[in-house]
Design goal:
Blueprint: E1 3-4, H1 26-44, E2 53-57, H2 59-73, H3 76-88, H4 98-109, E3 112-115, E4 120-124, H5 129-149, H6 151-158, H7 162-186, H8 193-196, H9 205-209, H10 212-229, H11 235-238, H12 245-253, H13 259-263, H14 266-269, E5 280-283, E6 292-297, H15 300-308, H16 311-314, H17 322-326, E7 338-348, E8 351-360, H18 363-375, H19 377-388, E9 396-401, E10 407-414, H20 418-427, E11 429-432
Parallel strand pairs: 2-4
Antiparallel strand pairs: 1-3, 3-4, 5-11, 6-7, 7-8, 8-10, 9-10
Helix pairs in contact: 1-5, 5-6, 5-7, 7-10
Length: 433
């Protein structure tokens, strides 16, 4: 997880280059950092435990930081499996290098990044002075939260569950965004917002070209996250409200268990509407003949909404246009009845079998999801055949109900004959709690 300054509806992060006269000296940067830390302490009602180092960095520094964070939190095997799952479910084109596209997106969009290992943050050297101060507010809020709640320790406890990690990322980036917006509103008379909102379109090309599977969770962490901390799913309105320090404290100490709780805040904050995800578990102990479990994961409501939206309807994001950002949604009617899911990816050589089991609030919700995935089955089959390379005839997809009418099972297989497929599916025992 990379802690970065991102989008603000009060001050969209510009990538206009700073002039030589705008570049900070280290002494100036440290002085302004101390001033903003004092502002945040007043806003949050919390105090920094220890000093936070700050420095100006280049894009090369950002790439190096991303590589180091990736080496600490990911493995090549997990990255490869996650990319295969995304492609098999039609979330990204089968020919795309998803990892390279993510790096391209981050390089173009990031204005600064906080490193919890060194408890320091870095600002991109290309940022104008006023925008630097806004980014400082975001990054210093990350530093404050890290000192108070140990972000990496929470991440380690969450394991490798995409849905829970994204839900926690919404807390982290939602806090940074809410506090950044509050700080910007308090200092609006001192900032040149007009110049800050002029984006360098050449550097925003990666956002327009990136699949929604990359930019939507990223944007959702900032926007839906800040709305969640304001206890509302109307995240646009939440951007103008002051940060709620008590709720930030609660959300860090007891993070939401799913993106469903983030997207529908009453399912977390209101005891009468509390909705914990149902557990779906696989037992792969009976896999044989060289087959092994490559990845288990929970996708959650946000990613389920993305998968159920046909590729032609996912659209692109014009990050230079505030109205484009205002129109983004992070769920849909098909996904809003989500109650839990689990995806398993088994492999042997070039063969792959993906099994996605989902459970729903009602049989009607399950039926709607079943219909949507049935309509998308040809897309899944096409992706499987592209990925199969030499064995397209042994690749395909099915959609069926599970053991109960509130369960739906999606299966996608690549270069796997019928007899092998039957054996693998029998070996992948499923339990719903």
């Amino acid at each position: 997880m990379i802690y970065c300054a991102g989008f603000s509806l009060l001050a969209l992060c510009s990538t206009l280059p700073a002039t030589q006269d705008e570049r900070w000296t280290q002494a100036e940067l440290e002085r302004v950092s101390r001033e903003i830390q004092a502002d945040l302490e007043r806003m949050r009602g919390e105090r920094f435990v220890r000093p936070v180092a700050v420095r100006v960095s280049s894009k090369a520094d950002l790439v190096e930081y991303m590589k180091q964070r990736e080496a600490k939190t990911e493995t090549p095997e997990k990255l490869a499996a996650d990319e295969q799952i995304a492609k098999l479910l039609g979330a990204v084109p089968p020919e795309m290098d998803l990892h390279a596209k993510l790096y391209e997106l981050m390089e173009a969009q990031v204005g600064g990044f906080y490193d919890p290992d060194s408890e320091s943050f870095s600002l991109m050297e290309t940022l104008p002075r006023d925008l630097t101060r806004v980014v400082l507010a975001h990054e210093l809020d990350h530093a404050l939260d890290d000192q108070l709640y140990d972000i990496d320790d929470t991440l380690e406890r969450l394991g490798l569950d995409t849905d829970r990690i994204l839900a926690f990322q919404c807390v982290v980036e939602g806090s940074g965004t809410a506090v950044m917006n509050q700080w910007t509103a308090a200092h609006v008379g001192e900032l040149d917002l007009a110049s800050m909102s002029k984006n360098d379109l050449a550097q925003l090309t990666s956002m327009a070209d990136a699949p929604a599977a990359l930019w939507k969770p990223l944007l959702g962490a900032y926007m839906a996250g800040s709305g969640f901390l304001q206890r509302t799913d109307k995240w646009v309105m939440a951007q103008a409200k002051p940060a709620n320090s008590a709720d930030i404290r609660t959300a860090f100490r007891e993070p939401p268990r799913s993106t469903e709780q983030v997207l529908h805040p009453e399912k977390y904050w209101d005891p009468e509407h509390l909705d914990e995800p149902r557990a779906v578990r696989f037992d792969a102990s009976k896999l044989e003949d060289g087959w092994s479990m490559l990845r288990e994961d929970t996708l959650g409501e946000l990613m389920t909404a993305l998968v159920t939206t046909p590729a032609a309807d996912r659209g692109t994001l014009d990050a230079s246009n505030p109205m484009s950002i205002l129109g983004v949604t992070f769920t849909n009617e098909l996904a809003s009845g989500w109650d839990g899911d689990r995806v398993a990816l088994a492999g042997r050589g070039d063969s792959r079998v993906l099994r996605w089991v989902s459970v729903w609030d009602t049989e009607r919700d399950a039926g709607e999801f079943f219909g949507a995935m049935t309509a998308l089955r040809s897309t899944l089959e096409s992706a499987a055949r592209v990925l199969s390379k030499a064995a397209p005839k042994d690749s395909g997809a099915t959609v069926e109900y599970g053991d109960a009418r509130d369960q739906v099972v999606v299966t996608v297989h690549v270069a796997t004959g019928r007899s092998d497929l039957r054996r693998v599916l029998r070996a992948l025992a499923v339990a719903v709690e």
